[in-house]
Amino acid sequence: MAISSRVFTGIVMILVISGELIVPGKGTCQGDIEGLMRECAVYVQRPGPKVNPSAGCCSVVKRSDVGCACGRITASVQKMIDMDKVVHVTAFCGKPLSHGTKCGSYVVP
């Protein structure tokens, strides 16, 4: 059963507000985390096909420190997003994650 992007965004927002998205002691990242969730959630959620992101998603990716945000992904968030899709979205948008970047427990190949 697929989760709608609105439900997914709502869940992630709850995790952000409750502090579950941010690893304690790591501070915050530059950029529009709310915009990333709003514009890009549908492209990285589980399940579903890997598709190219919208111009709106890419716009937010380009002005955000995705590598920083990636390092703050918790296990509970990682259960909802497909890290291969995150890598695809960032690369498609012209801000590829470097090989070896750690996103939660996932390491970019």
From TrEMBL:
Keyword Secreted: no
CDD domains attached to this UniProt entry: nsLTP_like
Signal in keyword set: yes
Cited InterPro entries: Bifun_inhib/LTP/seed_sf, Bifunc_inhib/LTP/seed_store, NsLTP-like
Start and end residues of each Bifunctional inhibitor/plant lipid transfer protein/seed storage helical domain: 25-103
Keywords assigned: Signal
Span of the signal peptide: 1-27
Domain of life: Eukaryota
PANTHER family: BIFUNCTIONAL INHIBITOR/LIPID-TRANSFER PROTEIN/SEED STORAGE 2S ALBUMIN SUPERFAMILY PROTEIN, BIFUNCTIONAL INHIBITOR_LIPID-TRANSFER PROTEIN_SEED STORAGE 2S ALBUMIN SUPERFAMILY PROTEIN
Name of the protein described by the UniProt record: Uncharacterized protein LOC108831669
Species this protein is from: Raphanus sativus
